[in-house]
Design a protein that fits this description.
- The model has no long low-confidence stretch (mean pLDDT about 90).
- The protein is an all-alpha fold.
- The protein is about 80% helix and about 0% strand.
- The protein contains 27 helices and no strands.
- It starts with a helix and ends with a helix.
- The protein is elongated, with a radius of gyration of 37 Å.
- The relative contact order is 0.03.
């Protein structure tokens, strides 16, 4: 039946086009109605033959000079041909005869936007919206939202979407869009109120539940967001974005086991993504399951081999297991892309130190303090490495440099003092120890950790005891 109808339509169009050609050539032809011209124009338009379509619309208007539908069609073609001012003129003429055609306002909006006059486009639509109801009003609100987006009036985009959803709570396009704009504008409380009303009307709208959850998440109300996401996936158990966002909420709550469960559902429902594998790896890392963390980090790096951070995370898992050489290999991969990142150089320095390659370790720690001279942990790593390697003179020099570079952090007075004791300059060491204790007595443990046997020195014990008595007083 449909095949016969299609054949009839083709034959009818073929006959119509022949009559149109006869008209153009001045031959005898059947009278063409306004609708016939519209059909002929659409045919040429679909063939991307704007020139022929414009010619047809001009001939049509010569036959029906007051036909608003033909004027609107002409404006549409003029916009395609980038003749925007002409399009606006013909639309204004058309409006005099029939102002109830929604396409008239949409096309005029397109022309104003093409002329970089978004304010005029917005004013036009704001006035037009008052003339329409139902689906046509919704269509104009979507147009208006796009105009506001074009000239970066983002709060008004959100307002348009609210108006649409108040009229059509189940409108999927608006539900999808308002989730983004809620996050962008930060209007989470309003979104919560709106979606609670929608859910009261449509309790099985998974998109409304999702948007409600996302708004709670925007306010860091993670428990509430998880509850709402669970409603969304109860309605649609293949709603991968709900599982994805729920996983993020569990991560924020440090509920890593639950996060793994929902993120693995994302993996099952969608094509693999490095960010999901990385998140699962992070969860296993936090759960102390280092081998499983490494497994997922490797899956992530397989999908995104240009992310140096993933190689670093794999290296850290090896370091936690004291597998220094495999860690070095992963850090080398990371540093081929980003050589100067502090964390990478610190990790490489630690690996090299544990492999007994102290000169190389000193080099990497030196890179850290060069690029971030106020970084306390970098200086500590460098000095500790020099002490382990028994480069005491260099360690003494770097403890002085660290004190100056970090704006006189007291911890380096303790390092300086301890090194003086190590190299046999106990008198100078005691003087510095007293200065350090005055500045930051809570850091004494750092001093003791450098050389625990130092507590066998009676003078050191006396200084420490004296400061403890002062604190009690």
């Amino acid at each position: 039946m449909s095949q016969n109808r299609y054949q009839e339509d083709r034959e009818s169009l073929k006959e119509l086009l022949q009559q149109y050609r006869n008209l153009k050539l001045g031959r005898q032809h059947r009278f063409l109605e306004e609708d016939s011209f519209l059909r002929i124009i659409d045919y040429f338009d679909e063939k991307d033959n704007v020139k022929e379509a414009l010619e047809a619309v001009e001939i049509g208007l010569s036959q029906f000079p007051f036909a608003s539908a033909l004027m609107v069609k002409k404006a549409d073609l003029l916009i395609v041909d980038k003749r925007y001012l002409e399009a606006i003129d013909i639309l204004e003429t058309s409006e005099l005869y029939d102002n109830s055609d929604i396409d008239l306002y949409i096309l005029k909006t397109d022309a104003y936007l093409a002329l970089d006059q978004p304010e005029k486009a917005a004013a036009l639509l704001e006035a037009a919206i008052q003339k329409f109801e139902g689906d046509e009003k919704v269509d104009l609100l979507f147009e208006l939202a796009d105009v506001y987006d074009d000239y970066e009036s983002f709060e008004k985009v959100f307002d348009c979407l609210v108006l649409i959803l108040e009229q059509e709570p189940a409108n999927e396009e608006a539900l999808y869009k308002i989730c983004f704009w809620t996050d962008y504008t930060g209007r989470n409380e309003e979104s919560i109120n709106l979606h609670q009303k929608i859910i009261d009307q449509l309790p099985y709208s998974e998109l409304a539940w999702f948007n409600l959850a996302a708004a709670y998440q925007g306010l860091k109300l993670y428990e509430k967001s998880i509850d709402a996401y669970q409603y969304a996936v109860a309605i649609d158990d293949k709603f991968d974005y709900a599982y994805r966002n729920m996983g993020d909420a569990y991560l924020r709550l440090r509920k890593y086991k639950e996060a793994v469960e929902v993120l693995e559902k994302v993996v099952a429902l969608t094509r693999p993504e490095d960010v999901i594998y990385e998140a699962i790896g992070h969860c296993y890392h936090k759960l102390g399951k280092i081998a499983q963390a490494r497994f997922y980090y490797k899956k992530a790096v397989h999908l995104n081999p240009d992310d140096s951070k993933l190689y670093y995370k794999i290296a850290v898992t090896y370091m936690l297991e004291k597998q220094w050489q495999p860690a070095v290999k992963q850090l080398e991969n990371a540093m081929r892309m980003h050589r100067a990142i502090t964390e990478y150089n610190l990790a490489m320095g630690e690996c090299k130190a544990n492999l007994g390659q102290f000169k190389e370790a000193v080099h990497y720690f030196g890179v850290v303090v060069k690029h971030k001279p106020k970084n306390v942990s970098g200086w500590e790593a460098l000095i500790n490495c020099l002490l382990t390697a028994e480069y005491f003179d260099e360690a003494l020099l770097q403890s002085k440099n660290a004190f100056v570079a970090t704006d006189h952090k007291p911890v380096f007075l303790f390092y300086h003092s301890a090194i003086l004791f190590i190299i046999g300059k106990s008198k100078d060491g005691l003087i510095l120890l007293e200065q350090a204790m005055v500045a930051a007595p809570k850091l004494l443990k750092k001093f003791i950790d450098i050389r625990p046997s130092i507590l066998q020195n009676a003078q050191v014990v006396d200084v420490i005891a004296r400061f403890k008595r002062r604190r009690k007083i």
